[in-house]
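ARCHIVE CARD
CATEGORY: sequence design from structure
SOURCE FIELD: tokenized fold
FIELD CONTENT:
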């Protein structure tokens, strides 16, 4: 079977396609024929060697996939050959076959196709936990979302709307604005300016009558964080997810005291490893939002297997609205 492999850390174009033996499951493992794999920003970091969790070289990158169970190892219950599943793993998705476990996998509901399922994994789980677990979002509150046309950002827009929130989407241009609006954003603010520390607060206050945002979802860091925390309402919550905009920001804690603001971080994989029952409940909630039409994975482009490096490069450059998904080309 074909598999992308990282032999040395570097740019996406340094990935190689290797021919590897077909996988065999060990005890507790599931081998899946991968139909589609989602591209995530952490994949770029793993390939470059800049992520917090790195496997030994050489390795197959990729954290999100959907496919059909090929074989199960001893001790696996609830999954059988032929099952349609989606899964989030630490690495190994960019291949024609992948290994997962029951704790990392979910049966796909009828009507959900493989590319959609591959696009509905890590970013939706991350956005859901950011909003509900860390941000403690309540229906009727206002959410400010940075990078609102990206993978996590757009997922957060859809989930927040599905949970009854008012959504303020931070974007950089008209194309991103339209994508956010199409997913239900109530208000759009411009993040393309140079003085975001003041501009974000001005724009958020303008659409909230000076109230601010109850919850802030920040996958960007850098200048967005400085502006967003100033736009946070009294007793607001800021959830830090990543630093896609570049610099890791710092915070003056006196500002937290003055407005009773809470700032917290989120690393989704800790929930997968420590509380798999919460991840299962979150995925079922996401499936329910999908059935209601609130969650609609947006696939900007479906790439063929040989074009995965191009997809990764576009994600690295911040040129993907929604998700880039790689098709393995076998009945997807």
């Amino acid at each position: 079977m074909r598999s992308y492999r990282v032999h040395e850390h570097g740019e996406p174009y340094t990935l190689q396609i290797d021919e590897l033996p077909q996988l065999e499951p060990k005890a507790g493992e599931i081998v899946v024929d991968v139909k589609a794999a989602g591209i995530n920003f952490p994949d770029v970091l793993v390939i470059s060697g800049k992520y917090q969790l790195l496997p030994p070289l050489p390795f197959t990158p990729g954290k999100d996939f959907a496919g059909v169970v090929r074989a199960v190892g001893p001790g696996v219950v609830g999954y059988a050959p032929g099952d349609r599943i989606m899964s989030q793993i630490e690495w190994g998705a960019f291949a024609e076959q992948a290994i997962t476990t029951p704790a990392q996998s979910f049966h796909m509901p009828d009507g959900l196709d493989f590319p959609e399922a591959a696009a509905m994994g890590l970013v939706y789980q991350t956005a859901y936990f950011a909003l509900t677990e860390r941000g403690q979002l309540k229906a009727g509150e206002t959410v400010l979302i940075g990078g609102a046309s990206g993978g996590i950002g757009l997922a957060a827009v859809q989930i927040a709307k599905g949970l009854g929130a008012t959504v303020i989407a931070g974007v950089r241009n008209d194309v991103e604005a339209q994508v956010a609006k199409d997913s239900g954003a109530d208000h759009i603010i411009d993040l393309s300016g140079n003085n975001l520390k003041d501009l974000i607060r001005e724009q958020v206050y303008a659409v909230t009558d000076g109230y601010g945002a109850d919850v802030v979802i920040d996958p960007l860091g850098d200048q967005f964080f400085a502006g967003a925390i100033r736009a946070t309402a009294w007793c607001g919550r800021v959830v830090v997810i990543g630093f896609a905009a570049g610099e890791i920001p710092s915070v003056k804690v006196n500002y937290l005291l003055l407005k009773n603001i809470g700032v917290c971080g989120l690393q989704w994989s800790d929930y997968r490893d420590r509380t798999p029952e919460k991840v299962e409940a979150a995925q079922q909630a996401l499936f329910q939002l999908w059935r209601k039409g609130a969650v609609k994975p947006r696939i900007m482009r479906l790439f063929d297997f040989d074009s995965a490096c191009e997809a990764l490069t576009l994600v690295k450059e911040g040129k993907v609205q929604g998700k880039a998904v790689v098709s393995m080309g076998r009945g997807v």
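CARD ANNOTATION: The chain is about 35% helix and 25% strand. The first helix runs from residue 41 to 48.
SHELF: design records, drawer C
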